[in-house]
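Hey, I was hoping to borrow your eyes for a little while. No rush at all, and the record is pasted right below.
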Amino acid sequence: MSRSQIILGLDPGLAALGWGLVRSDGHRLAFIACGTLKSAASHALALRLKALHEALHCVIAARAPDAAAVEETFVNADRRAALKLAQARAIALLAPAQAGIPVAEYAANLIKKSVVGAGHAGKEQVRVMVAHLLPGCAPSNDHEADALAVAITHAHLSQTADAIRTAARG
């Protein structure tokens, strides 16, 4: 029997880091909250990363998730943008780990396939399915919708992994 858990999904970005919280109770999912953490483009990179880290730490402290899941980065042709995204992603991995929360990582195509059923689904399709799977949620942007999709993916895949472990124990 699976236990209820709160999952924090994170969509990393330097300008906007999306977060979403979902309660997973067996096969039932419930929307808790979502938001976007922003950093000022006019600030130095170190200050932007610090602002994201502090804001994410506040979300974690206030919401006390049981697990976190982060979207993996994809290869970007713009090396500078890819490096900045990787640094923001490091913040998304670090903050929950510092709080003692287990962190999982999922590829963007796996997230889309888990939520929409197609690995190359568009942003609008993800947003529509997130709203369908989590009644009452209304993400205000793609970052929040993507973060909720990451949390949904973790809920589905962690349940599958738990079932396999239980079956293997016999």
Strands lie at 5-11, 16-25, 28-38, 67-71, 103-106. The chain has one domain: 5-169. The chain has a mean pLDDT of 90. Residues 21 and 86 are 22 Å apart (CA to CA).
